Each structure stands twice: as C-alpha cells, then as structure tokens.
User: Fold this.
Amino acid sequence: MVTVETIGEELWGDAPPQQPRANVATLVSRLRARFGAAVIIGGRRGYRLGDTIRVDLHDAAQDITYAESALSTGRPGTGLVAAENGLELIGTNLVLMDYPAPEWAERARAMQTGLLRRGRHAGAECALRVGQPAKAQAIAEAAIIADPLDERAYGMLMRAYDALGEPARALVAYERLRTTLATELGTGPVAAIRDLHVAILRANAVSA
Assistant:
C-alpha cells in the first residue's frame, strides 16, 4: 500500500496542486475507468496495484533470481531458460522514457539496469555450462556493450571464444579489457581473468 501523501510527493514533488488528495483520487478514477476497477485497490489511506496486475520488472526479477539459483544448484539448462525469459521481459530500451526526471522512474530504470546485468551474467554462464558457447558469446557481448568495464562478462566471453575454437579472439578480448581498465581506472584485470588469459595462452601454445 502506498499512502496518498507518498503518491503526491512522487507525482508533484515540491509543487503540489491545491488539493493533492482530490487530484490523486481523480487520477485513480481515470485509471480504473480505463483499465477496470480491479487495477488499483484502496482509498483514503492509500492505494496498491490489484492482485491480478503484473509488472514486467517484477516478473523478470523472479526469473533472473531463479536462473541464479538454478546455476548455483547445478541446473544450468533450466537456468538458461529462466534467464532468457527475464531478459526478454525487460528488453533493452530503458523503461519509462516518457518520464526522464522523476525519482520513481529513475529507480525503475536502475532496477532494470541491475536486472539486465544479473540476467546476462547468469544466462552466459548457464549457456557455457550446457555447451552453447555461441549463445554465451552473444549474451556476454551484450553485457560488455552495456558496461565496458564488466570483467565477469569479459571472462565469459573469453571462455566462449575458446570453446568455439577461436582462442585468438579470446586473447584479443582480454587485451581490449586490459586496455580499457588501464585507460579508465588505471588498473588491470582481476586475478581470475589473468589466470584465464594464461590458461588460454598455454593451451594454444600446446596445440600449436
């Protein structure tokens, strides 16, 4: 339940109308007229979404949390399906773009960004574990486009290239990460990524 006062603050900030309670009630009435009486429940004390209403971000959060759980319990196949479902639900276009300034819209966009990151990490790792390196590559690359400093995504991209029989591209990805980190942060890849780089180098040297 969200109080009428909170709704007024979110909608109008420091410049509320003369009768904020009446204005909120009018807006709720319009929503009910447009979408049905069950869309919003409540009255004087506050309002909440009706029990039948679903929110994409919330459903995506459930899917991605399930994918992470499936990954940690050795069920990467079901984890991959859940991760892909979650990622498809929220898409890549920022939510609520018609509302660029309000804090409530910013919170939704921050939630979307975090879910995209988690979903891509879980999805790429699941894809690697079920032997789908091409899919892992695509998901990891999407994560890197969103955050060029995402070392975990780079690690999965390197593993995907290696599994695809393209170790040279894995080494190029490492160099790209190393250069980006040095330029942006003045640091280098974490130990796990450095170890992966060395392992790919050694395997490539043996096969050559």
